[in-house]
Every structure is written in structure tokens, then in C-alpha cells.
Fold this sequence. Notes:
single chain, alpha/beta, eight-stranded mixed sheet
Amino acid sequence: MDSAPCEVRAEASVGAAGYDGIVLVTDCLEKLQGQLSPLQAPLKGQASFDESVLKEGACVKVDLPASRLVFSPTGPLNRDQDDVRRFSDAAAAGIKRALKVGMQRPLLACAPDQTFPHADLVALLGALHALYVPLEIREDVPKKASKAAVLGFVGSAKTVQMALALESGRLVARDIGGSDPERMAPPRVAEYVKKVFEGSRVRVEVVEDDATLQKEFPLFSAVNRCAKGVPRHQGRVIHLTYEGSGPVEQTLMLVGKGVTYDTGGADIKAGGVMAGMHRDKCGSAAVAGFMQVLSKLQPPNLKVIGSMAMVRNSVGSECYVSDEIITSRAGVRIRIGNTDAEGRMAMADVLCLMKERAVKEVNPYLMTIATLTGHCCLAYGNSYTAIMDNGPASKANMARTIQAAGEVVADPLEVSTIRREDYEFHAGKSEYEDVLQSNNKPSTQTPRGHQSPSAFLVLASGLDKHGKDSQQPLKYSHLDIAGSSGPFPGIPTGAPILALAKAFISSAF
Length: 509
């Protein structure tokens, strides 16, 4: 499997041979000093009669082996609202323009900046994002399998190596998350993941036997009940395990929502809102992508268990329905309120399994990652992951730590909070059930629509028995990536892989 969209090389200067153009990212032409000074005069000359160059960029001729230069300005970097994404956005825009003017071997250069320590890395990642080619195109249309032959980068080899490791993970996440519901139906996700990690330090275990799924993951199996009648749609729970060298100092335990297509089930998505629901697997995709980063960087003293709950929420005579009462793995009686709240169903029992394992692990930290609610987009927009801690995780300041990590690598998060109202919302409303899965309204019409599902996951998995008042408190955070996973139509972002990598493999940066 390809781990990058093209070959990437570190170069010492903008005068390197073998390139057919330069892409320059900076906010100010005065920063073009030293080895970048040959780029200053051509741009100042262009700007002398076209001031729009400074804001909108330009393509100009330069007296260097690459012969032409695409200038892609970042815009201001010093205002309250400016962050490091200026570099990834500018690099991506510059690469797209370079491709339009016919470059096949662009050389990316980023002027020095003291404000953002990882600006070079972020810019290179932005360029690689723009060069990604969807899996189906790579497989089905070989002549379009790559957008560029090679990408040069004026900078250190270490930056290139780090970018390639991170991009390898994002590529895996994009392949799984962005591919259509047939190409990445659950069995084919399992095949893809096995191929990715073959020969690596990541161990793969696939649970596919239906009797085992029903026994071990009854809530997941309720969602799978309709889909499993079609062999190519049958659900899979995929466990990935990485253990670095040396004694384990921290154990991360991740559960990803992997709904390969979400019709809404019996509470079917109507009004033209079903399109794009193949992207409901981006949580599991991010888990696989993060494991790929681990396999490349191989951090010591870290153990990571990632589980992918891959299932299709189909509609038909076998689909689960509202009012059913299903007992979870944790022994909690769950009344179904809305079959379109299937993501929490798919993850809850897998999270319970993680909880059972966590009490035997060293310094465990549990997470769920999911494109879970439209309310998250409503609350925070389409670029931000919402993260919320349970009591022990909040005490350890986990959400703030991951937020700070994401901020410096252009993978931003907003910290939200699980409140008492969220637990009360999901408390059983009658003698029949312990927990109500959901109300019968969309999350966007439900107060605290992105926060309350985290309380459901705590209650349904039995994590409420491991709060800060317990003998065995367990840190747990829920990450809603409904907004940050990427636009549709468009390419998935791979969020929150960069933030997790920076937070838990910081020594590699």
C-alpha cells in the first residue's frame, strides 16, 4: 500500500535541480532572506504594478533551475484569530495552483516564522493533503493514481520523515473514511486493514462470527441485524494492538465508530440528508490511521489498543426499531429511542470490553472517536473536534492537553463538558429500562445534543462505575468529529490523528 501520494524529498535550497516549479508559502516578502532571497525580487517586481499579488498570490518566472514560482500567501499571522492553519491552507492552495499551471515536480518552500514552531511540518502536511488521490481512483483509474511525480521540500529530512509518518496515517484514514459504502463495507475494511499492517508491529484481530458478535456485543449486533443478511455488508469488530519497546508507561484504548453506511434504519433519514452517510465511518478510520502512525514512528513505552466497530445501519424487515429493549454487555437494559442513534450502539459494548481490559492495564486512558452528531457541527462549526472528559479524565486535564497539542499541528479541538443534565437525559423513564438510548428528535433539535451521547456511552458501558468516586477510576474522553472529519463532497481530513500523535508521541516531534 502506498504510504504517501508521491515521493517526497528534502532539499537544501530553492536552487535544487529536478523540479519544474517552486511553491512559496509566507506572509511577508521581507522574510525572503538568505537562501530564499532569489525569490524576493521577482515577486516585488510583480507586486510593483499588481498589488493583489501580496494578498492573492501569483505565478512568476524566476532565474532558478525550477524556472517558475507560485506564491501562495498565508495572510496575516499576528492577529487574535490567526493560527497555524494559515500554513496548511496556503500550502494546499499553492499546490493546487501549481498543478493547474502544469507542475508535476513542485518544490515547496516555507519562509521562517517564529510564531508557530511547527509551521514547516504543517505546511508540508497541507501540501500532501492536496496531493491525495482517493483509493477508488488509484485502484480503478491507474492513469490518475497520482497528481504529481515528486514533491520537494526545502527543509530538514527530519521534518519530511515526520510528515511522511503522519501522512501515512491520514492516508489510511482517508482511504477507509472517504471510500464508498461498497468499497469499504465491513468485510473489505477488515481486508484493507490486514494488508496495511501485514509485517508491522500492529497486531490485527477480526471478530466476524455472528454468534460471537451477538454474545459479546449485543448493542452492536442490534444494528448489524438487518445488514448481516447480505454477506458483503456483515459487521466486523476489528481490534488493533501496538506495544512499543520497553516497559509500558501509558495505555491508550480507542474505540472508533465505523458505520459504513447510515440509512437511519427504521427511523430513516429523509429530506435529502442521507447522501454522504458513507463518511459515518471516519471515527474507525481515524483509529486505524493513528495505529498506522504508531507503526511508522514506533514510540517506546506506549501500548495502544484500537477497536473499529464496523457496521452498516441498513433498513428492512430485520432492522432494529425504537421501543426495543436490549441488554448491553455491561448488563444495562437499554430502551431504543431512535434507530438513527446507531453510532453509540455500535461503540458502547466495545467500550465496555475496553473498560474490562483497562483495569488490568498500566495507566489506561479510554477514548471514543465518532462522527456522532449534527449538533457538534451546529455548536462548533465544520472544522473542530469536540472533546469531553469524564471525571477522572477531567481531573487529569486530558481534554485540555489534547486541545493544546492539536493547536500547534493544525488539528483544532473545542473542549466541551459532560454535565448532570446529560446523565439525567439518558436515565430510564420507566420500570422497563435502565437507560434511554435517545429521544426521537435529531441531535440538532435536542438541547445538549452532542454532549449527552457521551453520558449514554458511560452508562451503557458501565464506565459510570469507574468515576472519580470509585476504587478504580478510569480516564475516558469522547471525541465527536462530525465537523472536523472533512467536507462532503470532498476529502476527509483524518482528524484527530495529528492531535493524538502530538499529544502522545510528542518526543518524535
